[in-house]
Amino acid sequence: MAELNEGSKAPDFTLLTDAGEKLKLSSLAGKNVVLYFYPKADTPGCTKEACSFRDELPRVETNNAVILGASPDPVSAVAKFKEKYGLNFTLLADEDHAVAEKYGVWVEKTNYGKTYMGVERSTFILDKEGRIAKIFRKVKVDGHTEEVLAALAAL
After folding, report:
1. Nearest by Cα to 136 from 105, 101, 92
2. What is the pTM of this model?
3. Which residues does the annotation mark as catalytic?
4. Nearest one of 39, 54, 41, 47 to 118, comparing CA atoms
């Protein structure tokens, strides 16, 4: 897979949502999209990130944008996560991590000396034409929502 760059066409995909319905990325043409990948539902960093996006959704929407959060969790786990924290945007179940691989965020990670494959916390801002306007890799949760809002405002 070629590395994605800002200005590239975003790879299209279809995934199941937290409601168990299919969502095709290209169906959102005409809107800006905040597509963020997170490692695991209901873990401290992922919860903090999701709640920050939840709290700032009105500001995101003023930029004609929607938020999509994708993780390798099954539909049942993302649905439970969404309900538990009152998340007001769509979560996607990328169980086979095929979409994470397309976006180059399924990577080798090391934790306590153990090496494994997992999601690198990353965010892609897609413009109304489905092009990648901004890429944030190895995201640090603190202050990230403000970075995303600034990128959206610049579109």
Report:
1. 105
2. 0.96
3. 46
4. 39
